[in-house]
Amino acid sequence: MTTDQNAPQAEAESTNDQISVRRAKRQRLLDRGEEAYPVSVPVKDTIEDVRATYADLEDGEETDTVVAVAGRVVFQRNTGKLCFATIQAGSGERLQVMLSLAKVGQERFAQYKADVDLGDHVFFEGPIGKSRRGELSVFATEWTMAAKAMRPLPVLFADLSEESRVRRRYVDLIVREQARATAKLRADVMWSLRNNFHNRGYMEVETPMLQAVPSGAAARPFVTHMNAYDMELFLRIAPELFLKRAAVGGMEKVFEINRNFRNEGADSTHAPEFSMLEAYQAYADYNTMADLTQNLVQQAALDAFGSTTVTLADGTEYDFGGEWKRIGMYETVSEKLGRDITPSTTVDELRAIARELDLDLDHPKYGHGKLVEELFEHLAEDDLYEPTFVMDFPTETSPLTRAHRSKDGVVEKWDLYVRGFELATAYSELIDPVVQRERFEQQARLAAQGDDEAMRLDEDFLEAMEYALPPTGGMGMGMDRLLMALTGLGVRETILFPLVK
C-alpha cells in the first residue's frame, strides 16, 4: 500500500489512542471528586462582552475587576510556572487566559497541565487585564472543567476537505470561521425576508409536510406510510396548493418558509431536502411578484452585507442592484437559433433541432413545452449571469399558471436566473377551476406516457378552487439557492447539516 492509502487507518488509530488518553483524564477528574460534565458553571461574563468592555486597556495593565468566563480551549502553551490558553466562544470570538503557579496553587496548576486538552470547555475566573504584549487576558485564579472533549480537534491551520466539513459540520463550526459566518448569514437572510414580508402585511403560515396527493411542482416525491390511518402519504414537494387554499379562505397575503422534499438527483445545485419560500398575494400578478422578488433579494443583501454588491467565495464581486433584466423564453431561443420558435412550432421541428444540437430528446414525454424549455436551458442558461427574469413559458409545462393575457400559447410565468442557475419562479396563478381540471387531466395523460414528474389530480384542491380563488400572484424561491447566490458557495455548504451518503 502507498502512504496515502495507509493515512486513514493511521489517523483512526491515532484518534483511538487519544480517546483512550482522554478517557483516563476524565476518570481522574471523577476520582478526585470533580465533575467532567457539570450541570452548570458560574459564568457571569461572555467572551464577546469582555472583549468589548476592556478593549481599551493599556498594554501590561491589570485591573481588580474579576470576570468569570467559559469557552472551548483551542490553543494552549504550558511552561514551567505559567500556562497560556485561548478559549473560543460559539461565535468564534477568542480570549486569552493566563494561569500561573503563584495564582492557582501548585495542586490545581499541576491538575490543569495534566488534565486539560484542546477541545475541552473550561471555566476560568480571575481579574482582567492586558499582557505586556498587548493581549487581553484573564489572569485566572481558579478553573473548572465544564465539558471534557473525548476526541481531538483537527489542526486549526489545516483546511478540512468539503467531505469532512459536511459530514462533521459540528467540527467545521468549531474550527472554521467561514462555516460560522455562513450559518449566521443564513439566519440574517431569513430575518430580512420575514421582516420584509411583515412590513408588507403578509401573514406567515405553516402547511402540511405529509400530503395525500403530492403536487404543486413537477417532481418525484418521497413515499411513506401512515400506520394510524393505514394510508400511503408523501413528503411534500411544494406547499403551493395548500397556500392557495389559504388564499381561497381569505388570507390575501400569505407566505411560508419551510422544507420541501424531492426524490431526485443531488449535485452542486440540488439537495433532496431543501428550504423553500413561497408567497401568494391576492389581486396581484407575475409582474407584481417580480418586483417583490427583486426587492426581497436586494433587501436581504443590504441587511446581511450592508450593500447590494457582495463578495463571492472566489473573491469576485456580484451586483444585485438596479433593475433586473426581463427576457422572453421563446424570443431568446429564437435569437440563439437564428430562426423563429413560437408556440405553434411543431414537436417534429423541435426534435429535429434537438438532434442537430446532439440532444437526446426523442422520448414521448418531451412534448412541445418540454422541448422548448430543454432547448432554452441548453442554449441560454449559462449566459444568464446577471439577475434575469425569463418570461412567458409554454402552457403545457405550467399546469398551475394562467394563460398570457395577450400572447397565445404561453402562460404568465417567469423564472429568475442568477449566475447561470434558477433561483426563483412565479406565476399569475390559474384561478379558473374548470381549466385547472383540464390541465390536471392533461398532466395525468403525460404521466401515463411515462412522465414521472407530471402533477397528480387533487380533487380536494379543485373543490377549494370552486369556492373562488381571487386573481393571485404566486412566487417560490429556494432558500439554499439564495444563499448560493449571495455567497458563491455550493448547495451543501449553505445547508447547516446536509444529507450525505
UniProtKB/TrEMBL annotation:
Which Pfam families does the protein's record reference? tRNA-synt_2, tRNA_anti-codon
Q: Which residues bind Mg(2+) 1?
A: 415, 422
A molecular function (GO) held by this record is: ATP binding
List the PROSITE patterns hit by this protein, alphabetically. Answer: AA_TRNA_LIGASE_II (PS50862)
Q: Which SUPFAM superfamilies match?
A: Class II aaRS and biotin synthetases, Nucleic acid-binding proteins
InterPro entries linked to this entry: Aa-tRNA-synt_II (IPR004364), aa-tRNA-synth_II (IPR006195), aa-tRNA-synth_II/BPL/LPL (IPR045864), Lys-tRNA-ligase_II (IPR002313), Lys-tRNA-ligase_II_N (IPR044136), Lys-tRNA-synth_II_C (IPR018149), NA-bd_OB-fold (IPR012340), NA-bd_OB_tRNA (IPR004365)
| Cofactor(s) named in the record | Mg(2+)
- What is the top-level taxon of the source organism? Bacteria
Q: Which UniProt keywords apply?
A: Aminoacyl-tRNA synthetase, ATP-binding, Cytoplasm, Ligase, Magnesium, Metal-binding, Nucleotide-binding, Protein biosynthesis
The record's comment on protein family reads: Belongs to the class-II aminoacyl-tRNA synthetase family.
HAMAP family assigned: Lys_tRNA_synth_class2
PANTHER family referenced in this protein's UniProt entry, alphabetically: LYSINE--TRNA LIGASE, CHLOROPLASTIC_MITOCHONDRIAL, LYSYL-TRNA SYNTHETASE
On assembly, the entry states: Homodimer.
Q: What is this protein called?
A: Lysine--tRNA ligase
Organism of origin is Helcobacillus massiliensis
